[in-house]
Design a protein that fits this description.
Layout: E1 7-13, E2 24-26, H1 56-59, E3 65-67, E4 75-78, E5 83-84, E6 96-102, H2 116-126
Antiparallel strand pairs: 1-4, 1-6, 2-3, 2-5
Length: 128
């Protein structure tokens, strides 16, 4: 979906995860920015899920908060919330599961179509 309000990210730690183990970082309030057009080359195609490098000038508008979690916790947040994994500085593995849930009944839901610009073009063609 083009709007993060039509979906949710779920992040589930398999064990207690603190800052030194790479706790997740979020920027509270950043979800209100909405969809950001990422400059050419900003998308990281080497990773299997859709991930974008948000320009530093956008990220700097918000405080970054590290969220330490315990096994059995679940973090649920708007898909447009700026978030990233922290760096694991320990010699142990960090195990967490992540999932994205989309509202599939909206016109801007195109499964498998990651490019937001292309989705909007297709949506405008469908409405004409």
């Amino acid at each position: 979906n083009d709007s993060g309000e039509k979906g949710v990210v779920c992040w589930l730690p398999m064990h207690d995860i603190n800052e030194s183990q790479g706790a997740i970082h979020i920027c509270p309030g950043s979800h209100k920015t909405g969809l950001i057009e990422v400059p050419s080359g900003g998308k990281d195609d080497t990773i299997t899920s859709e991930q974008y490098r948000i320009p530093a000038k956008e990220v700097s508008k918000y405080e970054s908060v590290s969220v330490e979690v315990n096994a059995g916790d679940a973090l649920l947040f708007n898909m447009d919330l700026f978030h990233r994994s922290g760096i694991n500085c320990t010699t142990t593995f960090r195990f967490a599961a992540g999932a994205r849930f989309h509202r599939t009944t909206t016109p801007d839901y195109f499964p498998g179509l990651k490019n937001a610009k292309l989705r909007r073009i297709m949506l405008s063609e469908l409405s004409t």
